[in-house]
Amino acid sequence: MRQGRLLPLIVACALFIENMDSTVISTSLPAIARDLSTDPIALKLALTTYLLALAVFIPISGWVADRFGARPTFMAAIGVFLLGSIGCAASSSLETLVAARFLQGMGGAMMVPVGRLVLLRTVPKSELVQALSWLTIPALVGPVIGPPLGGFITTYFDWRWIFLINIPMGVLGIVLAKRFIPDIKESPPPLDWTGFLLTGLGLALAMFGFSTLGRHLVSMPLSIAALVIGVGALLAYVWHANRHPHPLLDLGLFRLSTYRAGVLGGSLFRIGIGAIPFLLPLMLQLGFGLSAVQSGLLTFVSALGAMFMKTIAASVLRHFGFRKVLVANAVIASLMLCCFGLFRPETPHVFIIATLLISGCFRSLQFTSLNAISFADVDSKQMGQASSLSGMMQQLSLSMGVAIGGYVLEFAGLLGGRPATDVHNFYVAFVVVGLISASSAWMMWRLPRDAGAEMSGRAQAGKEITEPKVEQRPAT
Fold it and tell me: 434, 270 in Cβ contact below 8 A?
């Protein structure tokens, strides 16, 4: 098999188990809560901790690969992820599950970015688009089969097996990587250790404090202290980054209007979307009384909608342009998210499936547009920094979405005098997170009208329209 096809499939092993893991656990949250004798809302920590670990370690993944070699880094990352998976399967309490999920996140933060870096540096440019298309297959397939598979395993076997199914694919990835992935090394500049400590400590403490304010795991005073110290460390990083010649994360990128809208505006959109894997399975199982397998068979259709939209996203952007698509689609996708709050136990499943399918289409279009517009004006020399900062912000916003979704459930239950997992609280939660996502449209509206015109292909189309055609006359 040619390198342009073999390497993407090897990297795809890592991407597949990462996407599978993140979807199967969402379907299994109620079963895990019962087995660990904990509040289902507290299990938001199992989701936020994983996303937080990704946010902390993604920024240094490229430096580690350059310093120690891409092949050993990629193999070690898969190994760490598998160790975390075994730890999750062996967990007997919320604390051990959260610790194991953090270990998983450390491995996940290195797997896919390093694998993508290998492709960019080894596959010829003429074959790169095809190679990346092979790489995206598991990213689309994982969310499709993850929910029903997780529901099937949880319903008919034991939830712990959802973590152990990662092991065969992970071992295969390690074996193939050792044999076929080249050991690429570079000479990176010195790592900004101060910046890494400030961002890592700041993100970890701030998100831990924010996620545990509901008195899960630790006391309220300790949560507040962690939140304050974490925010202080992040502010200290802003001061540090403005004075360091090679900061870990270049905050100056936010001066670019397209990058600012794509990353900061995109973060607002992702906060609402990030709550879906937490809220939807809980509502269907705890609120509507569906089994895990029934819940999984309903929720996987969103991924089918996303797969379909990938085939026409480029044409939509070429026709309407980034600004119009980002503004209108942010509102439409957010309204679809609010519509999840209209679901009732007696709602026909056909209506739920149709809503989730259409919602998946609009979310996929928004993610595609955001990922593209973020890099429309980024210089090639800054692409690595821009990618790291964008990846960190994406994981952080998804983590915040899970935490906010949990808090809305608790607050709505407190106001209504009912349990946090009462079905009526989910109706409120979906409206709240949907409105947060909709607020991103304001930042998209501030984009220049021709933002990303060259990337969408509209600039070339406009040039062909405005340039007069020269009539070719036969020579006499």
Answer: no
The secondary structure of residue 214, as a DSSP letter, is T
What separation in angstroms does the CA of 325 have from each of 144, 313, 371, 451? 25, 10, 13, 11
Token pair recorded at residue 120: 């960019």
Tally Cβ neighbours within 10 Å of residue 107: 25
- SS3 category, 277: helix
CA distance 399 to 472: 60
pLDDT digits (tens, 9 = 90+) for 77-95: 999 999 999 999 999 888 8
Report which DSSP code applies to 38: -
d(CA 374, CA 260): 7
What token pair was written down for 232?
């202080």
Q: How many CB atoms lie within 10 A of CB 35?
A: 15
Q: Report how far residue 410's alpha carbon sits from residue 220's, in angstroms, rounded to the nearest whole number.
A: 15
Tokens 């304001």 found at: 442
Does an H or E element contain 83, and which?
A: helix 70-89
**What is the per-residue pLDDT across 301-329, written as a single tens digit (0 to 9) for each?**
887 887 788 778 778 888 888 888 899 99
Contact 376, 451 (CB under 8 A): yes
CB 297 within 8 A of CB 151: yes
Q: What 3-state DSSP class applies to 124? A: coil
Instruction: State how far the Cα of 14 lies from the Cα of 344, in Å rounded to an integer.
Output: 38
pTM confidence score: 0.79
DSSP string over 376-440 = TT--GGGHHHHHHHHHHHHHHHHHHHHHHHHHHHHHHHHHHTS-TT-HHHHHHHHHHHHHHHHTH
Give the sign of the dihedral formed by CA 250, CA 252, CA 257, CA 260.
positive
Return the structure tokens found at 402. 């899970």
Place of tokens 């005098």: 417
- Cα separation of 23 and 142, whole Å? 8
CA pair distance 392, 371, nearest whole angstrom = 13
Burial class (CB within 10 angstroms; exposed 0-12, middle 13-18, buried 19+) of 337 = buried
In the prediction, which pLDDT does 439 show?
A: 94
Structural contact between residues 359 and 302, judged by C-beta atoms closer than 8 angstroms: yes
The tally of CA atoms less than 13 A away on the side-chain side of residue 101 is 20
Q: Are 97 and 84 in contact (CB under 8 A)?
A: no
Candidates 54, 176, 184, 174; CA nearest to 119 is 184
At 287, the amino acid letter reads: G
Tokens of 339: 């519509």
Instruction: Find the Cα–Cα–Cα–Cα dihedral 371, 377, 379, 380, rounded to 10°.
Output: 40
